[in-house]
Amino acid sequence: MNVPNLREEKILFKKNYKYIAGIDEAGRGPLAGPVVSAAVVFKKNNLNKWLNFNIKDSKKLSQSQRKSLLAVILQNAIEVKTSRVSEGVIDKINIRQATLLSMERSIKKLKNKPDFVLIDGRDTIKKIDIDQKAIINGDNRSIIIASASIVAKETRDDIMRRYSKKYPKYGFERHKGYGTEFHREMLKKYGPCKIHRFSFRPIKKI
Predict the structure, then answer these.
(1) 3-state secondary structure 145-165
(2) Is 16 exposed, middle or buried (0-12, 13-18, 19+ CB in 10 A)?
(3) Taken in order 103, 33, 185, 193, is the CA torsion positive or negative?
(4) Shortest CA distance to 38 belongs to which of 84, 4, 96, 90?
């Protein structure tokens, strides 16, 4: 099993890159809500301290573990930025393009412009003029990408918890918009609401 480490980051710092950003998203698969990306910036100084934080891909952590690690990341990273793309835009341009747009926006928000970007997945971000590398399964291979996955996941979960108060029938606080059995039952009972992704097949069928 892959364990996030600093191999990619150390290689880049040896090549004299000064600031490295990791980027990941949360929310490609849900039937409702936005897709959210996070950019986390590291610098060379004190890099090894990150090995002590036990940072993992957000999907391998409990909610309480993610919340604790989010505080650690915000305290120790040079900078952290997030960006969301709404379900309406997802319906217009598709989830892949919406994910790349959210990543692009997160990078462009950074005040400390990175010299290099490590991206989870197979796509690079064509609209940023920064050296970059896409890493498949990157949140299991790179601590900086895993850090971004935690920030993105916690940010999106918080958005969906707030939506649950506006649309209480669907139980968004429970499943965060994913297509669970309960969510599908509520969709059949009440139909979709404004934050559902109408371009996604299960919603189209309803």
Answers:
(1) HHHHHHHHHHHHHHHHHHHHH
(2) exposed
(3) negative
(4) 84
Going along the chain from its start, the domains and CATH numbers come out as 7-158 (3.30.420.10)
Calpha distance 100→111 (Å, rounded) = 20
Does residue 67 carry a pLDDT above 60? yes
As a whole number of angstroms, the distance between CA 99 and CA 152 comes to 12
Show the tokens assigned to 59.
Answer: 């999907």
Q: pTM for the whole thing?
A: 0.96
Average pLDDT of the chain, as a whole number? 96
Predicted confidence band at 1 (pLDDT cuts at 50, 70, 90)?
low
- CA-to-CA separations, 188 to 4, 147, 168, 193, in angstroms, rounded: 40, 37, 15, 12
Length of the chain: 206
Decide if 17 contacts 116 (C-beta within 8 A): yes
- Residue 183 pLDDT exceeds 60: yes
DSSP for 68-96? Answer: HHHHHHHHHSSEEEEEEE-HHHHHHH-HH
